[in-house]
Specification:
This protein is an alpha/beta fold. Helix 15 (420-433) packs parallel to helix 17 and helix 18 crosses helix 20. The protein has helices at residues 31-49, 95-109, 133-143, 158-170, 180-188, 194-201, 215-223, 250-253, 278-281, 291-303, 322-334, 356-362, 377-382, 393-402, 420-433, 451-459, 484-498, 501-513, 518-535, 562-596, 619-623, 642-647, and strands at 3-7, 10-14, 67-74, 86-90, 118-125, 144-150, 175-178, 205-209, 230-233, 260-263, 266-267, 287-288, 308-311, 341-346, 365-373, 406-413, 438-443, 543-547. The chain is globular and about 70 Å long. Helix 4 (158-170) links the parallel strand 6 (144-150) and strand 7 (175-178). The strands form five sheets. It has a six-stranded parallel beta sheet with strand order 5-3-6-7-8-9, sandwiched between helices. A six-stranded parallel beta sheet has the order 10-13-14-15-16-17. The structure holds cobalamin (B12) and iron/sulfur cluster. Cobalamin binds next to helix 2, strand 7 and helix 5.
Length: 648
């Protein structure tokens, strides 16, 4: 590649020994050096250069405005057949993409590559956009110089990111990759794992840590052809108070169904769950954006017609600025009539914070994600999730329902004491006793970057080497009581067990009685019931209208002959569509029946009954009484069978 960059008045080549792709010459550049370089390049590889020089550029010296183009791609990951999981519209936005986009936009505004160098950015989330590598290459070459950024790469997306990186490197383009897999591995492991080494061997540059305040350095290095193999910024966590706002252009946001955008109002978490990677990458000290910044983010998005947000803080209730932030949003909604809708993540103790839930609802929160994780205190203690107090779960859930907010709760399967029987029992208890709307299941997974992963790695315990499987939908290591087959079956059964027609009807009845938006509830029930069972993907990775492109297949998997692929895909499509149609019709019928019931609004059951005021405890708290540590402020109660033992 014969890149010629002008910096500080100079002009010099970078990586001139490699395949030439573009020549960049500046009007004021040293004419002698420029001419010499052009001659070298011409003789080196004239056949490569000539067809690629854009018509409006001239090999002999003059380019009106040098441009550095950055292509930002948030990679998806592969399904079990090796096809990229992508949709016409995805359902959740990528905040990592928004963050990095804005950081580069700031660099463009500040002209960090020199006063004459224009930085252009293109961004896409592969979950909702097909990446045409050849097209991206063409655009970057037409610009004259640039780089590919592989954004927010999680462990499960790492193999796909590597495959994309491999293709761009084959065209000689600079590639920089960042995200949780890289940050987590570098933060926790004593040596670089083989997959990160593979990226380095391909010439991909790795970025570990947060990029606020560091992006200009990366761009300058890449532009100078002097990028470092690894950028390591794990120990210096940037302040969030004045951080750049994560904002994506409308055209990128509208690829997400419902036009949801996102922002993080804070990073870091004070808790210590052993399966979590966040604390080891973003730290245990929480950092926050100011209410002014959040208001500015919302206004900037609203100016392009976007008013729905996923606030991606892992726990918005622990954001020290939650109240002034919500007050601002309430003002925007109530005074200025912004049609704000919020999706947030909170912990199970948030109901103890005075006014928190009420203000969330007034600020436009219509749904929350909760890390319920498990109802067995032994499992929660084992994972150091000491803050989850099961005897408060029902009160907390009822407090959200009182504000007509839907609850999505994550439930992890495969804690060391779990067995098929205890899991089945626990799901039945939840169905009967906890007023959760949507329950989603995950495998307990040693995610790279977590304490669990580090411990297994250091002890040499076998873990699945295929990072594509670290999507919380696969068993990636052994379990003390269940074989891999049993665990896999337990996961599949969990979805079936929770989303029975009878329980879906109960959830709808509870929803109508609590004034939860009927359409939103119905849509969520359809998606969460069907995504894993029909599409074979977790609902958090779901979208509308799955695309499977014949040629977008995993690196080592062969591209199937079209005569075999298209008939297979047609049958696959028809089968999946008919399953979806059946599910949609069934759930709509149930909802219509429930809504017709004249007594729908006064429906009540065990889960909806407030009890603590009357001094009662949940039956399920009694089931686990002997597992709750006495130090945890739990109500004192006899362990199951204790009364009988005492009588004997
Ligand atoms: C919001 C979120 C989602 C959203 C959106 C994803 C996104 N990345 O925005 C959704 C709901 C889609 C999602 C889904 C999943 N998620 Co998620 N998610 C998060 C969450 C809570 C916030 C992400 C975020 O915005 N972070 C803030 C950004 C700014 O940080 P960042 O991504 O690290 O980016 C910074 C740096 O890494 C760097 N950087 C990143 N890319 C690049 C590129 C370049 C070129 C450079 C220079 C720098 C750079 O700069 C950025 C700005 O500082 C994180 C936890 C967390 N606190 O981060 C989990 C997290 C990322 N998710 C996780 C997981 C496991 C999942 C799922 C697999 C779970 C599941 N089964 O559903 C799915 C997979 C989705 C898929 N399509 O494959 C794990 C990943 C752990 C790991 N080792 O990979 C995390 C860390 C949570 C955890 N449990 O530990 N998730
Ligand atoms: S799982 Fe949630 S509560 Fe636990 S440490 Fe991670 S972010 Fe914090």
């Amino acid at each position: 590649m014969a890149y010629v960059y002008r910096r500080n008045g100079g002009c010099w080549p970078a990586n001139i020994s490699r395949k030439p792709s573009q020549i960049f010459l500046d009007r004021e550049a040293n004419a002698g050096a420029a001419k010499a370089l052009v001659i070298v390049a011409k003789f080196q590889a004239i056949q490569h250069i000539l067809p690629r020089v854009p018509k409006h550029r001239c090999l002999w010296g003059v380019v009106a405005k040098p441009t550095f183009r950055v292509a930002l791609i948030k990679p998806s990951h592969y399904d079990q057949d090796g096809y990229v999981i992508q949709w016409l519209h995805s359902t959740l936005p990528s905040n990592s993409l928004a963050s990095v986009y804005s950081l580069i936009e700031q660099c463009a505004r500040e002209r960090v590559l020199g006063p004459d160098v224009k930085i252009e950015i293109e961004a896409c989330d592969e979950c909702n956009t097909v990446i045409d590598v050849a097209d991206v290459v063409k655009r970057l070459r037409a610009a004259g110089a640039g780089m590919v950024g592989l954004i927010g790469v999680q462990s499960n997306q790492y193999p796909r990111a590597l495959d994309l990186g491999r293709q761009f490197r084959a065209h000689g383009l600079p590639v920089v990759m960042g995200g949780f897999h890289i940050s987590g591995c570098i933060a926790m492991l004593p040596t670089l794992p083989a997959d990160l080494q593979e990226a380095l061997d391909l010439g991909i540059h790795l970025f570990a840590g947060e990029a606020e305040g560091r992006m200009a350095e990366v761009l300058r290095d890449v532009a100078a052809g002097a990028a470092k193999p690894i950028y390591k910024y794990l120990n210096e966590l940037p302040e969030m108070a004045a951080a750049v706002y994560p904002i994506l252009p409308r055209a990128v946001v509208t690829r997400v169904a419902g036009h949801y955008s996102s922002f993080d109002a804070g990073r870091g978490c004070p808790f210590q769950c052993s399966f979590c990677t966040i604390i080891n990458v973003q730290g245990r000290k929480s950092r926050y954006r100011t209410p002014d910044d959040v208001e500015a983010i919302v206004r900037a998005n609203a100016a392009q017609g976007i008013t729905r947000f996923f606030i991606t803080d892992d726990n918005f209730a622990r954001n020290r600025n939650w109240e002034p932030i919500l007050d601002r949003l309430i003002e925007l909604r109530e005074r200025e009539k912004f049609n704000i809708r919020l999706l947030i993540q909170v912990d199970t103790l948030c109901h103890r914070i005075p006014n928190f839930i009420e203000k969330c609802a007034r600020a436009g929160c219509t749904a929350i994600f909760l890390g319920l994780e498990n109802i067995n205190p032994e499992s929660l203690m084992g994972a150091k999730k000491r803050q989850n107090k099961i005897w408060e779960y029902r009160d907390m859930l009822l407090a959200w329902r009182a504000q007509h907010v839907m609850t999505y709760a994550g439930y992890i399967l495969g804690f060391p004491t779990d067995t098929p029987e205890t899991i089945a029992r626990d799901i039945e208890i939840i169905k009967k006793e906890l007023p959760i709307d949507i329950l989603e299941f995950f495998y307990l997974t040693p995610l790279p970057g977590s304490e669990d992963h580090k411990n297994l790695y250091l002890r040499g315990v076998p873990m699945d080497p295929d990072m594509n499987k670290y999507d919380l939908e696969h068993a990636c290591t052994g379990h003390p009581l269940m074989s891999k087959e049993t665990w896999t079956k337990v996961y599949a059964d969990a979805w079936k067990r929770y989303y029975t027609n009878a329980h879906v009807e109960t959830i709808m009845r509870r929803g109508i009685a609590s004034g939860i938006n009927r359409t939103k509830l119905l849509d969520s029930l359809i998606i969460f019931s069907g995504a894993a069972r029909i599409e074979g993907v977790h609902p958090l990775q779901f979208g509308f209208f799955r695309r499977k492109l014949r040629k977008q297949r995993r690196y080592f998997m062969p591209v199937v002959n079209p005569l075999l692929f298209y008939p297979w895909r047609t049958l696959d499509f028809l089968k999946i569509s008919s399953q979806w149609l059946g599910l949609i019709l069934r759930y709509r019928r149930i909802m219509a029946r429930v809504a017709r019931d004249p007594a729908a609004k006064s429906y009540a059951d065990e889960a909806l009954r407030p009890h603590t005021a009357a001094g009662e405890t949940d039956h399920f708290v009694e089931v686990f009484a002997d597992k709750i540590p006495h130090t945890h402020g739990a109500p004192v109660m006899p362990a199951p069978g204790a009364a009988q033992v005492a009588a004997e």
